[in-house]
Amino acid sequence: xxxxDELDRLLDKLTLRSRVRLLTGATTWRTAAQPDLGLxxxxxxxxxxxxxxxxxxERATSVLLPSASALAATWDERLVEELGGLxxxxxxxxxxxxxxxxxxxxxxxxxxxxxxxxxxxxxxLTGRMGAALIRGVQAHGVAATAKHFVANDAETDRLTVDxxxxxxxxxxxxxxxxxxxxxxxxxxxxxxxxxxNGTTMTAHPLLTAPLKSEWxxxxxxxxxWGAVRGTRDTARAGLDLEMPGPAGxxxxxxxxxxxxxxxxxxxxxxKVRRLLRLAAWCGVLGRPHRPARxxxxxxRARALTRRAxxxxxxxxxxxxxxxxxxxxxxxxxxxxxxxxxxxxxxGGSAGVFPQDEVSILDGLRAGLRGRARVVHVPGPAPDGPxxxxxxxxxxxxxxxxxxxxxxxxxxxxxxxxxxxxRSGRQLEPPVPAGAxxxxxxxxxxxxxxxxWRIGLAGxxxxxxxxxxxxxxxxxxxxxxxxxxxxxxxxxxQTVTAQLTAGTTPLLVARRELAPGTGRATVVGAxxxxxxxxxxxxxxxxxxxxxxxxxxxxxxxxxxxxxxRDRKHLALGPGxxxxxxxxxxxxxxxVAVVNSGGPVELPWRDEVGALLLAWFxxxxxxxxLADVLLGRTEPGGRLPTTWPARLADAPVTRTRPxxxxxxxxxxxxxxxxxxxxxxxxxAYWFGHGLGYTTWAYEELSGPxxxxxxxxxxxxxxxxxTGSRAGREVVQVYLARRAPTAVEYPERWLAGWTAVRARPGxxxxxxxxxxxxxxxxxxxxxxDWRTEPGPCRVLAGRSAGELPLTLEVQVRExx
Length: 813
Ligand code: BGC
Hints:
Among the domains are: 218 residues, Rossmann fold; 133 residues, Jelly Rolls (Sandwich), CATH 2.60.120; 118 residues, Immunoglobulins (Immunoglobulin-like, Sandwich), CATH 2.60.40.10. Strands 12, 13, 14, 16, 18, 19 and 21 form a seven-stranded antiparallel beta sheet that branches. Strands 9-25-24-23-10-11 form a six-stranded mixed beta sheet, with helices on both faces. A five-stranded parallel beta sheet has the order 1-2-3-5-8. The two termini are 44 Å apart. The radius of gyration is 27 Å and the shape is globular. Strand 34 and strand 35 form a beta hairpin. The longest helix has 18 residues. It is an alpha/beta fold. The protein has 19 helices and 35 strands. The site of beta-D-glucopyranose has 8 residues, from helix 15.
């Protein structure tokens, strides 16, 4: 009997009601079990930066990888596949069967709140990176999820926004990465919250065609969390699994719709069959269920994550300052708040509690131990919400252990449960029967006297007391339906309070639980910073007295997060002034940018070197120190074009008009849009320097490629520097006007990486898939390749392509 016959046999054993029951989650992160069939629960958990496991609990730590934008910057599929393997081992450790990654939406606008979580602006780069991650995860028996199908490229009104996209753009740009994911064998596809051309994605015909029919996807289409809003339309469409549960739009309503003949039983059976197929693949059907492997991630995992940091770090400019020579350094000034508190991940559902985090300052200290003096100056205090009370600032008033005390109280104030916790950020506190109030309290141990900022995040009735004195008491109404905002990153109410070093005041934060206000309660505190002129003056002094300066700037928690888009790309006057002051003080200044996506760098020509760290994950500091100190090359190349000013970017609108967001740029996303508008960005897609130099010498390939066939071109290049290095050789295509159909000015068609020793010449063989030469013919409903002249360009970025080759595309005979 084939596996499929076996699935049918199991299906036959189920009543309609029990079949339908399986199609909605049993909990927030689990599917329903059917013990008499031998079907266990599937556990799903967010990625992509790490595997959180079920629930949000700071005690259940995870390995935190660099953000997806950093992974794409590696342009290294083998490495991304290895990292996928690491995610799988994390999933196994935590008993997770399905990882909710990769995120395959595109960098359409630099303002997108989840920019950091997406790979790139380019459909080919995104598709290849996504496929690599999927292969890596699934090679270990853990299922991956391609999300969010499709065109969920910004956050503003994301639950309702209607993306208006023409068919050709959908096919060539936005669906293309999902098609690559399906070809890589992805087991789940997540239908997004948004609408496309008037239909919400959980009920969209695209789930059937092309996804299931044309591409042959035989896995499960799962809804984004809470994205199912109707019964019949979603059940008739290709959606298979509604999450979360147990409440939802399907259940009894779907049973009734089937009984009334509105939905055919075969449609339900197809969904159940897909779910059973997935369960069988994940090992929760039939055989003894796969045990969790509770081992802690190994040293190898840390080494791999650290390697990924360096491989994705993008060196944008270098005026002979990097690498720093540790044998010549006596003192190095490390400046900026994010140097000591490096932001390792973006905000939202992808967040995990990392095992530990190596800041850039710690990484440099470790790298220079015994060799050079490392001086840290924090610079101006960061804005944004105060960071959660942690094990350094707080102690549990009951046990005196470092951290906080979490209590849940009933309406009369009686304690229902109490736990010692490590952090003031509590997203899923226990909710026993009768729970009325969540309370987080801590004795604070300030080391600085002055006006501290105290913050409390959450919706509903909030109060803050310091030594019994009220600091805040009020009702803060829910402003959105977005689960990522309600449950993960609600807004913060901030007050100031005078704290005195050496005292241990008691801070008590309370939030009343009420329907619709979510679970999150976060209490934070930030010390007073020096005033801005004093901070700049001490940074200037430290930089002047050092042999080199590393100044770290970046975006705050409030800027790059799921649930909201950014309003601007500025780092702010404080950080810009800081870089300028440091660069003025010391020509050997390296500016390190700690952000997940583009920011404006108005001082970029004033610094000695400019390095993008991204959100580098838990091993960020070690990996960046490896790059700064020359132990390894910066491997990264930009996965997205960086504007000098936001206003120059081809797409800056994230706010829908009358509910609609028009993808007016059509095919011309990212660098294609910049080229079409004849605008020059600060840095082109694909740009990034290593520690050696390259001469591109010759491009050759077939003079007459045949429509519908792959083409391989070869690029000869030579390492002209004094160090061995790796180069990402990029190949773009352009059609010569006039053409019968519209094309982008040029587009990425393939790439490969080569390595060479100093002086060595190497040949890169770059495969251009047949699809690279074709377009989606709307009338024919198929891919077509126009015969005629075509230009092949090779080089190191979309803006630096020294080699060209003219070819004639021939019709297939
Ligand atoms: C996000 C998804 C995520 C899901 C579960 C949603 O709000 O859009 O990416 O997988 O929540 O956390």
